[in-house]
Specification:
Elements lengths: L2 H8 L4 E6 L5 E7 L5 E6 L8 H15 L4 E6 L1 H9 L3 E10 L2 E11 L12
Antiparallel strand pairs: 1-2, 2-3, 4-6, 5-6
Length: 124
């Protein structure tokens, strides 16, 4: 991605939340678009399984609720599908497609935000 493309992407009114370590090193991030779409969600492998992703998601979800979102949705990989199922998302469709001539799939998922868990803090 070119710098201009990245700048346009992160200045399009999406909400970007970053989790950093006690040493201010980025460990995870999540991006919500203005319609509730989760465009990106990433955790560094060093913090995988420590609750950082869950805490980050819960924090961003509470921000989405405060902003008036009633629904979140995502296209999730197999690994991400398991995470989102644990967070109350439902699979709405299996998407099969080709990316650079490689057959892949992901899962369209959504969550209604009426009943959401409280934010969870993680220290790492």
């Amino acid at each position: 991605m070119l710098p201009e493309q990245y700048h346009a992407r992160v200045t399009d009114d999406r909400a970007i939340t970053v989790a950093v370590s006690n040493n201010d090193i980025p460990a995870a991030f999540i991006e919500f678009e203005t319609d509730g779409h989760i465009d990106c969600f990433y955790c560094h492998p060093d913090v995988a399984g420590l609750g950082v992703g869950r805490a980050l998601f819960r924090h961003a979800q509470s921000q989405a609720i405060a902003a008036g979102f009633t629904r979140l949705y995502v296209e999730a990989s197999e690994a991400a599908r398991r995470f989102f199922l644990r967070e109350g998302f439902k699979v709405t469709a299996l998407r099969e497609f080709q990316l650079r001539s490689v057959a892949i799939h992901n899962h369209s998922m959504e969550k209604q935000l009426e009943e959401c868990a409280e934010p969870l803090e993680a220290v790492f």
